[in-house]
Amino acid sequence: MAEIAIETVIENKNKMDDYYSPKPKLKPTPKPKLSLPVAATATATEKAIAVATATATETAIEKIKNKTVDYPPKLTLPEKRKLAVTLVYLTGSAGYHSVAGLFRGKKGARYYFIHVAHAIIREALRSMTYREWQYLTSTTRHNYESFARGKHFLPQVVHLERYGGTGYWIGDKKAKNVIVYFHGGGFMISASKLHFHFCWSLLSAVDKDQKPQPQRHQQRQQQQQQKVPITIPKTSVFFVDYTLTPHAAYPIQIQQCVEAIHYLVTETHHPFSSITLGGDAAGANLALAVLSHMLHPHPEIDLPLLNCANRTTRASLSPSPVPGSGPRSGPSPIPGSGPRSGPSPVPGSGSRSGPHSSVREDQFAGLFCIGPWVSFGAYQGWTSPGENRRKDMVTDDLGTTWSRKYLNGRKGDRWNQPVLASPAWWRGCPVRRALILAGSEEVFLSSIEEFARRFMAAVPNSVFFVGPDEGHVTPISDRMAKYTNNRQGKELMKWLAGIYETLEKSS
Fold first, then answer.
1. Which pTM was predicted?
2. Contact 370, 475 (CB under 8 A)
3. pLDDT digit string (tens) for 190-217?
4. Domain 139-305+331-506 belongs to what architecture?
5. 8 A C-beta contact, residue 447 and residue 419
6. CA dihedral (180, 186, 189, 193) positive or negative
7. Positions of CATH 3.40.50.1820 in the chain
8. Alpha helices (H) along 303-458
9. How far apart are CA 251 and CA 256, in angstroms?
10. DSSP 434
């Protein structure tokens, strides 16, 4: 038995060494060129713009697949000097906000440590360029592998070949149910370890009787030798790593996310009814873009996921004006969306009865959006950008700046700004239940309220919850200050448990 154990340890070490050793670059296989459909009546200028756009997208995808993008960036000496000065300034700023936070009054966040942390993050986001951020922060893959080592499981990386995205498994890919997670960060900042710890906590909420404890290879091989049955967890997470801006721009990130769903359906053979979509901030924007593509295929994505039923006519899908964009107009109120409200009641959201209670194979099990970034600009009448600018960790003008890198000269549309979509756009949405989360101290609250009103008008079994005294993506960001007891997080865990309890009963 001792000899077998020694051989197992050696074999396990060889596997780990093989994974972390550098791999030779493979010669990329040629792919058909992308083409953007152009109307027959388009002018010569419009045709030229369409061709240039398609060419730019194709070039960016090839750079991503060939790993020739400048990421992480290598700073020049002048850039490093500027970064050093910025870091000294931020150190002083942290001391200032630590003292000023004691006298914040009602204009600041309710909790002192959260107020100080948000103020420091705001200063950092304002002061540092995207190159400095990407230079200082680790890549999403590095953080995933570090997280995997801490949890003692072998990383499982999936390369999505068509559009150059990547996926990471947390848990067993043979699990019956999958949570597909799209991380936030303004499309510009990589996923942190906080994101992976948050996803780990989601698995704990879903499998109450079986905490996620990936086994070491040694333990797994010993079980196989002793013919002990290996328990496969009920749920796993597929974490999507899309290309950050400005190395890629819209719609490449959406293409990569759509391909991730396509991989799960065609390669791992997970039906839509076993998949839950989720994301925070920009990641929630991408989750909604996937649904938009399923309802109304994007002209630059040639991976149709599902021909959704009840598709409305194009005549009824013109962009709906956002309340507050005209003179003397204010935001449309949503029941239960006040500063300290709970979940908003909608028809069917409090009961599992009715036509939407049965599990359908052509519907996702659920969708959850944490502080979704649904608008790239503020409209007249939206009050949260001004009221919460000293409470939240982001500012509205910063979101506008980051969105320019994502759009890269393109105009906003209903695929990249969900708040522009009317209720008719979402009719027939292939999701069984939906949860939209926001904080009462969030800068984006007004835009999220407007989006929720439109989405919930078309999608039954939807819930909109506003966490009192909470800011942007609190379930994730507050983990920096070791705060995990937040209302949004509790609501999400309860909602997820209900989703998978229903799936278990129907199976």
1. 0.81
2. yes
3. 999 999 999 999 988 787 655 555 544 4
4. 3-Layer(aba) Sandwich (3.40)
5. yes
6. negative
7. 139-305+331-506
8. 384-387, 396-407, 423-426, 445-458
9. 9
10. E
